[in-house]
Amino acid sequence: MTTVTDVRPLRPVRQDPDARRRALYHLASPVSVLTTGPEERMHGTTASTVTLVSREPLLVGVVLKAGSNFARLAAGEGRFAINVLGGEQAAVARRFADSGRPDGNEAFAGLVWRADRYAHAPLIAGALAHYVCRFHSAHAAGDSELLLGYVVRATADEGLPLISYAGGLYAGSLRPAKEAAAS
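Request: output the structure for the sequence above.
Response:
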């Protein structure tokens, strides 16, 4: 197995950084709210990069900003939950993305949720899926932090996802891509 720890380019990149950033906005991803508990110390944050990392063991990865409070709290609790938001939950995503939101339990005021029996973290009503995770590890990655969690339990509902794309939040119908004709 080969591990690369330093991937600096051999020569300077000559592309405009804004052009690269604009191109990266075309990565569509579902929007989730990550939560920790217990109820007297709840915390939540919005994430638009949650992905399956491994099927065996079942691991998910979440990209957060470096020095994230959430990663520190999840590590301290040893567990956390991922609430994959439905298309009608843009206000929930914006609430937990706002750095000026109230701390702790006040951030959840007015939301319908229940505490998971394992993670003691809020599971937000109306979410398309809930992944209850045991903390695996956190890794520095450039100006971000990668949080990994073992999925202990997962549940899913029907509905349309809330998607982050091109700097905005989108909800709508999903339709299968058309198959290209064989040439």
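The first strand starts at residue 29 and ends at 30.
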